[in-house]
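Aim 2 progress update. The chain analyzed this quarter is reproduced below.
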Amino acid sequence: MTELESFKLLGIALATGLLIGLERGWRARNLDEGLRVAGLRTYGLISLLGALCGILAKQFHPSLLGFSFLGLTLILLVAYHKSFEKFEDFSITGMVAALLTFTLGALITSGYITLSCATAVVITSLLDFKPVLHGWMKKLEQHELNATLQLLLISVVMLPVLPDQGYGPWEAFNPYLIWWMVVLIASISYLGYFAVRIVGDRHGPVLTGVFGGLVSSTAVTLNLSRLAKRHLGSENALAAGILTACATLFVRTLLLTWILNAALCRLLLPSLAIMGFFTYIAAFLLWQNSREFRTGEEVSLENPFQLGMAIKFGLFLLLILLLSNWLKTYFGDLGTYALATVSGLADVDPLTLSMARMSQNSIDMQVASNAIIIAVTVNSFIKSLYAIVLGGLKLGYRVAGSLLASVIVGLLMEFSVIR
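Predicted structure tokens:
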């Protein structure tokens, strides 16, 4: 290593330490000088120390780096012990951040420049997001945490050991594949569920529709439709929320097919993209013409990481797979379309997953695409009926008119592609 290269590495190490120190120093900016254990300058120096020790360890012996790290740890322990006696602060976040800063400085001199810089940004962001992360934790209830950990544990432990081969008629029962798809659906849904729990009602029905649509656009439609008769004059805002959730379903369907079968996703893209685009536009126009509205009530959604719910979905998915194969065998493409129609009355996801898998070997790709479009169309029609029956005509014609018009445009696109 030349002297010029050493200067370059030391400069990068200093910048890395100053970045982390900027956040630490800003958080303790109201304390008098000398009362902080470590601030902007100290973190810069710690990173420099790590870099210098890394260079020396290369020149003399690797154990020098370990002894330096141990020495820094002892200094920090003494400093934080004194701080605890004075302020009774039990947090060791600063100490861990300081040790990580030293480590990053040493990594830079070992050639891991990009990794160290990226890690420094992540560490700084994590430290800065403390109020936000703690706010999220307060939103999470005990039963939600238990359900999440339970399914994650079973997925992490069970998924790798499940047999990845088909059993039974048409080899439709593949334990690994079915459980993997269950975890996939639950994960996407949980992102939306947790986002709704965090956001609550603070930003109105539209943002609820965006995140709620990742969980269940039908549940969002039912919840917001029921509010229409209790909040007269808010039909535009509620319709915007419902339409946003319905548009998110189209995006969600594309995402699932892209993950499982990219070729099928390309077939669906023109139709579903058109449906989603026009539905989002209709939602935006309704939102623009609505008064500011807060329901004061949280949208009721089931935690998708509940074990019982995941098992039920897995069984439903297995049933759809078996029926798809049976109907395809005895009734051809018409049987597949009939199943898509019935499935669309309840849930689009199982049919989507089934078609994504079967189109890889046992069913024509265009037939699978048509079946998913049918399920989405039927599901959109059902949600329009929910809005009319539960929310009244004022809400219903806004939702049904916009949603069905978007779906019709998408169907025309689908037929033009087939031709």
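The chain has a mean pLDDT of 81. The longest helix spans residues 307-344. These observations will guide the mutagenesis experiments scheduled for the next reporting period.
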